């Protein structure tokens, strides 16, 4: 690996250290993270773009506006790199009509039925921004705020983002302090570590909403990608995409993705659940425990493979059913129907209203932690 030369400040610090007998100077770190201006929000807040590069030349750029993954360049079986996430070249794209491209989602990712929930006997009302329901944290969710960004600790390139969501913001109780660390590992993984704490009982569901196309963003649809999801059950939905509360076995349904199958194989089946989702837009109940394999997607032509590992109990598999070519992405390319898929690791949708689902309540004194890994290989 090429070592970068230490700057003057580092040399001065090393000189001071070497004049003392202990402690021994640490060798200069070679982490590669670059920071560039990415423009300003409509309120005049400055936004940055951070670029992380690992020792294999895999590169991702992430902005602190919404913590969005803007680019992610990974090799195919011949070593040819492509950017596998949908997005925009400039901040303006993200400030406009972006369907959560690359974004961190919170305080509550996915839907909350009738845009309300009761916690400790008190009812909390949220913005109904998806029909009668609340979606992805509200009108100004975590995807639309400016996070504090700084280089993370550790040998591998990482970006640490912080955001303080105030008590009452978007209707949610408690000051919630959130930290998200993106690390680009030398195993070609984009690792996302989430942590949060609160000063009042609250609910949370944090995820990342990257849209992937393993042939490269803007290269056709994803119907020939093969998917495996490590889930024997899913949470069926009503016509508003709110879970009914049932955990239904996938066996014998288009949701049996336990063995690799083309995404397009059953996406137009006359199945009630597929019709409600207009394709796949469903939460799967993961079989795992610990940091376990949730899904594997293979793009047969390029050979690119993405594995998703998570500590979370669920994953929303969404096949870009609302993309319709009206959004102009990178290089002015239109992103047509089903030209990407999302695997949003998460707690189940509408958990605040579903006492039988795993709890999403966070209390003062507790620390929420979760990890998701998107691992890239080729075959
Ligand atoms: C999520 C939802 C979808 C859709 C997208 C954004 O994945 O489940 O229904 O709202 O976000 O367009």
Topology:
Elements: H1 8-19, E1 33-40, E2 46-53, E3 59-63, E4 68-75, E5 81-83, H2 91-95, E6 104-105, E7 111-112, E8 116-119, E9 122-125, E10 134-135, E11 148-151, E12 158-165, E13 176-184, E14 189-198, E15 202-203, E16 207-208, E17 226-229, E18 233-235, E19 248-249, E20 261-262, H3 272-277, E21 281-285, E22 292-298, E23 304-310, E24 314-318, E25 342-346, E26 361-362, E27 368-378
Structure description:
This protein has 3 helices and 27 strands. By secondary structure, it is mainly beta. The protein has a single domain, classed as Beta-galactosidase, Chain A, domain 5 (Distorted Sandwich). Strands 11-12-13-14-27-23-22-17-20 form a 9-stranded antiparallel sheet, with no helix packed on it. The protein has a 5-stranded antiparallel sheet with strand order 1-2-3-4-5, with no helix packed on it. Strands 19-18-21-24-25 form a 5-stranded antiparallel sheet, with no helix packed on it. The longest helix is centred in the first third of the chain and has 12 residues, at 8-19. It is globular, with a radius of gyration of 21 Å. The model is unreliable at 1-22 and 24-28 (pLDDT under 50). Alpha-D-galactopyranose binds next to β24 and β25.
């Amino acid at each position: 690996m090429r070592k970068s030369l230490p700057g003057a400040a580092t040399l001065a610090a090393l000189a001071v250290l070497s004049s003392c007998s202990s402690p021994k100077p640490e060798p200069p770190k070679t982490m590669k993270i670059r920071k560039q201006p990415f423009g300003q929000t409509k309120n005049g807040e400055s936004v940055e773009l951070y670029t992380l590069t690992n020792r294999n030349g895999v590169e991702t750029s992430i902005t602190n506006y919404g913590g969005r993954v803007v680019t992610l360049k990974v090799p195919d079986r011949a070593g040819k790199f492509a950017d596998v996430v949908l997005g925009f070249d400039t901040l303006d794209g993200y400030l406009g009509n972006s369907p959560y491209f690359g974004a961190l989602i919170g305080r509550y990712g996915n839907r909350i039925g009738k845009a309300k929930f009761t916690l400790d006997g008190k009812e909390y009302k949220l913005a109904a921004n998806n029909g009668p329901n609340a979606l992805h944290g509200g009108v100004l969710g975590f995807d639309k705020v400016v996070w504090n960004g700084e280089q993370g600790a550790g040998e591998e390139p990482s970006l640490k983002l912080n955001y303080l969501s105030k008590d009452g913001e978007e209707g949610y109780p408690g000051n919630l302090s959130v930290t998200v660390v993106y690390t680009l590992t030398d195993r070609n993984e984009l690792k996302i570590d989430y942590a949060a704490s609160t000063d009042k009982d609250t609910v949370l569901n944090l995820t990342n909403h990257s849209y992937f196309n393993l042939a490269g963003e803007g290269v056709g649809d994803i119907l020939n990608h093969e998917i495996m999801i490590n889930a024997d059950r899913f949470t069926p939905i009503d016509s508003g995409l709110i879970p009914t509360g049932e955990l239904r076995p996938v066996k014998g349904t288009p949701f049996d993705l336990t063995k690799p199958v083309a995404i397009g194989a059953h996406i137009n089946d006359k199945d009630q659940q597929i019709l409600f989702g207009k394709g796949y837009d469903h939460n799967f109940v993961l079989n795992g425990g610990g940091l376990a394999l949730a899904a594997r997607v293979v793009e047969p032509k390029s050979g690119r493979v993405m594995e998703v590992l998570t500590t979370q109990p669920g994953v929303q598999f969404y096949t870009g059913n609302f993309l319709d070519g009206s959004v102009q992405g990178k290089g002015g390319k239109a992103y047509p129907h089903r030209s990407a898929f999302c695997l949003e690791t998460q707690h189940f949708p509408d958990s605040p209203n579903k006492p039988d689902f795993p709890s999403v309540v966070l209390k003062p004194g507790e620390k929420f932690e979760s990890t998701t890994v998107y691992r890239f290989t080729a075959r």
